[in-house]
Amino acid sequence: MVTGAVVAALITALAVVGVLLIQAKGQVSERDSAAADNRHAEQAATDYAIGAATINATDLAGWVGKLKAGTTPQLAAKFDATAPKLEQILTPLKWMSTATPIAAKVSTVEGGIYKVDVFVNVTSSSAQTPDGAQTTVTYNVTLDKNLDWKITDVGGTAAALPLK
């Protein structure tokens, strides 16, 4: 009788431990998947920001191509609409810039929509600043995992600043 109770208790304990292990494995898998998605969003946003910040006034079509790369058709259309105006500004300035990444961080995730703040160091020169200048630029990049990680929106510095 005692032996039967001990065996039953052992079986129950093993079952509980098994269930707990399965739950823990699922939680670890979910955490790892979320971390991988964050890394993917941060890398895609960084790549985009570097392309957007790297400008050669003699190849503005190539730059506009980088602005449109990986974006939704709606966002690409906005860049197509503004490209002629940007060309009118950048060409006479003889604008040249290169960018290097500083950091990227997912700020929010909601329903597969990732908002990433990307900070890049931009070295630029122009007709007005032939010796060049360095600035830190922030890009706020929104990616939609549900749309195969397409970029749905891009913003500037203001949205990355903390609210008072």
Structure, explained:
- The protein contains three helices and five strands.
- By secondary structure, it is α+β, with helices and mostly antiparallel strands.
- It has a single domain, classed as Nuclear Transport Factor 2, Chain: A.
- A five-stranded antiparallel β-sheet has the order 1-2-3-4-5, with helices on both faces.
- 17% of the residues are buried.
- This is Mce-associated membrane protein.
Count of DSSP strands: 5
Structural class: alpha+beta
Shape: elongated
Largest sheet, in brief, is: 5 strands, antiparallel
Instruction: Give the assembly state of these chains.
Output: single chain
Low-confidence stretches: 158-164
Helix % is 40-55%
Q: Please report the first level of CATH classification, the CATH class.
A: Alpha Beta
Mean pLDDT: 88
From the 3D structure, determine the CATH topology.
Nuclear Transport Factor 2, Chain: A
Global Rg:
25 Å
Strand order of the largest sheet: 1-2-3-4-5
Work out the helix count.
3
Give the termini separation: 70 Å
Question: What's the number of domains?
Answer: 1
The CATH architecture can be given as: Roll
Strand content: 25-35%
Report the order of strands and helices: HEHHEEEE
Tags for this model:
164 residues; alpha+beta; 29% strand; five-stranded antiparallel sheet; Nuclear Transport Factor 2, Chain: A; single chain; 5 strands; disordered C terminus; elongated
Write the layout of secondary structure elements.
Layout: H1 2-53, E1 55-56, H2 60-68, H3 73-93, E2 96-110, E3 113-125, E4 133-144, E5 150-155
Antiparallel strand pairs: 1-2, 2-3, 3-4, 4-5
Helix pairs in contact: 2-3
